[in-house]
Design goal:
Layout lengths: L1 E17 L2 E15 L2 E8 L8 H15 L7 H11 L4 H19 L3 H4 L12 E3 L4 H10 L5 E5 L5 H11 L3 E5 L6 H13 L2 E5 L8 H10 L4 E3 L6 H7 L5 E4 L1 H4 L2 H14 L2 E4 L6 H7 L8 E2 L12 E2 L3 E2 L2 E2 L10 E2 L5
Helix pairs in contact: 1-3, 2-3, 5-6, 7-8
Bound molecules: magnesium ion.
Length: 342
Amino acid sequence: MRLEINRVEMPLRNVFRISRGEISVQETVIVQLYDNGESGLGEATQSSYYTHSADSIIDSLKQLEQELREWEFTTPEALWEVAEERLANDYFALSALDQAAHDLYGKRHRTSVFERKGMNWHNVPQSSITVSIASIPQMIEELQGFAGWPIIKVKLGTSDDLAIIQALRDSSDAVIRVDANCAWTVEETIRNSIEFASLGVEFIEQPLPADAPVASKRVVFEESALPIIADESCQREDDVRECDGLFHGINIKLCKCGGLTPAFRMLDEANSRGLKTMVGCMIESEVAISAAAQLAPRLDYVDLDGAALLARQPAQGVKVQHGKISRPSGFGCGVTLNTTLV
Ligand SMILES: [Mg+2]
């Protein structure tokens, strides 16, 4: 096997703000895994919250590059087991490699990932699109720019959260979901859940900090008027068990859990525990979006708007337009690189 590593800067359509900060250009790392005349694509994007920079992801992958040349590629799952031992401290890098391995395997065996996993492209949930934090008039303007999207996810964690949702509710009939990105207290969460339930909000994502006491999470789980979905609190496979009884569902992201290989196992675990399932994304190109979309037929909720937030990007794959997720075309993850990387 041979790995090619590319660093790419992707400009955003609009400045993106959440409770922790803002960005206007997203740095990402795109890898190509070559074996016997085929290649597969994978991606991991920079994230300050998860303390992975493009540089650190590239460094992790470079440490594996030489060894990888000696390995024989059989399945993505077999590669994941070996690679995980080397990349235990960098699941973002592991995720990029695992996506590429799934893409490569599908191309070699002339199947898409979702078909290999026994799924049909039926009853695929629609994706939300994200309105980021700004002044209320700016948020309304951004929302109006998303006319035609059936589901809106609103980033919260301000002193104006209730006024924001009231204003957005008055401006749109779309389904509203909210994501507090760890910014609320127990009391705020319960109070907001009651107000938001009356405004038709569907669920609340990650109200409390990931390291909030278990007792606090349990109070929120039991007293919230809306379902609570874990994002920052559900990163890796073992976290699914921990979320049972503290959250109503989990938001799986490939970069957090280390790729599609563990993501499919997390879905099994969540289904067996009766937890709702969702796939989310970072701001990333259609490389990572096409990989994450392979999970979509099995999910309750989808949030794969990452590439839709970009002004331009380096690949063509699964499209998410007005919430509709296009069926992956071609084999593997169904994505190809543009001739120029942005
Ligand atoms: Mg989130």
